[in-house]
Amino acid sequence: MTEVTKPLLEVKNLTKHFPLYGPFGKLGGIKQNVQAVQDVSLRLYEGETYGLVGESGSGKSTTGRTILGLTEATSGEVLYEGKDLTKWSKKEMRKLRKDLQMVFQDPYSSLNPRKKVGQILEEPLKIHGWANKQQRQERALEILELVGLQAEHYFRYPHEFSGGQRQRLGIARAIIMNPKVVICDEPVSALDVSIQSQVLNILKTLQKDMKLTMLFITHDISVVRYISNRIGLMYLGRIVEEAPTDDLFEEPLHPYTKALFSAVPDGTKKERIVLKGEIPSPLQPPSGCVFHTRCPFAIERCQKEVPAFREIRKDHRVACHLVEEEELDWFN
């Protein structure tokens, strides 16, 4: 991670609730709220990759989309170079799109099937003022080469590519304007393992060469370990643990993190921590600690009081009542 003290992108207490209406729609008013993201705070420093990991339904993708303004935040702040993006209009955000980009989970649905690859890649260049057609084409061909595709692919349609090639196109479109921040939303989850490694290596190379800052969203522990400098664990819309990658894998502190890591085969005879039940509904999240309904170590305090997300060790933050100075070892 680049040695800086000020984050390039800082998220403060980000919350996103989706209204759920009754049978008469908006006329009948809001019946309930789906609490997709609740009080999330994180920092991205220039040149690093922050991995955001958790089970399906934990709010990872919603967090990424809300940071970029693709989904409107209910509350909280998203500070990019000190400016709160949640207060910007759509017109103002459009000018900033060249700095903030996203690689989507499903590349095919994010690519216009009626346009050729050259048109898809050149469209953001036209929007942001690249008037010279030859320069746009040269830039598109350059980016295709960077992501491992060939010049002949410039004239093809998205349906003529394999899944791995389409994901490379998604990456190419995201980086063509030289962005500073790229949010990758499950970019390799739909790919074969061999193709996953190729795409991950492309991302790591691009990050180094273009000095990209990345938020990498995934549910795969092995993938996030390979690509991330720091990792945040999400559960039911909240970040429950955050630490540098090596520190987190050497000594995870939160029971949820321990359970996830115990499920990853690594050749050692470690005891598996089995979580009972399913993730509670975000319509009615549990009181107190959201994890207490599945935590094998939960105490009475966990049911009543929301744990503070605090720094236990240097750069290692945890939201758990059990992780106190005098209690660190009792559930290890």
Q: Key features?
A:
single chain, alpha/beta, 2 domains, 25% strand, Rossmann fold, globular, 4-stranded antiparallel beta sheet, 8-stranded mixed beta sheet, 332 residues, 12 strands
Would you kindly provide a written description of the structure presented here, covering whatever features stand out?
Residues 9-261 form the ABC transporter domain. It comes from Halalkalibacter krulwichiae. InterPro entries: AAA+_ATPase (IPR003593), ABC_transp_ATP-bind (IPR050319), ABC_transporter-like_ATP-bd (IPR003439), ABC_transporter-like_CS (IPR017871), Oligopep_ABC_C (IPR013563), P-loop_NTPase (IPR027417). Keywords: ATP-binding, Nucleotide-binding, Transport. There is one protein chain. The strands form 2 sheets. The chain has an 8-stranded mixed beta sheet with strand order 6-7-8-3-9-10-12-11, with helices on both faces. Strands 2-1-4-5 form a 4-stranded antiparallel beta sheet. The longest helix has 18 residues, at 193-210. The mean pLDDT is 89. The chain has helices spanning 60-67, 90-96, 117-127, 133-146, 163-175, 193-210, 221-227, 245-250, 255-262, 300-304, and strands at residues 9-22, 25-44, 49-53, 75-80, 83-84, 100-103, 181-185, 213-218, 230-235, 238-244, 310-313, 316-318. It has 10 helices and 12 strands. The chain is of the alpha/beta class and 332 residues long. The protein folds into 2 domains: 9-228, 3-Layer(aba) Sandwich (Rossmann fold); 257-332, no CATH class. Helix 3 crosses helix 4 and helix 4 (133-146) packs across helix 5 (163-175).
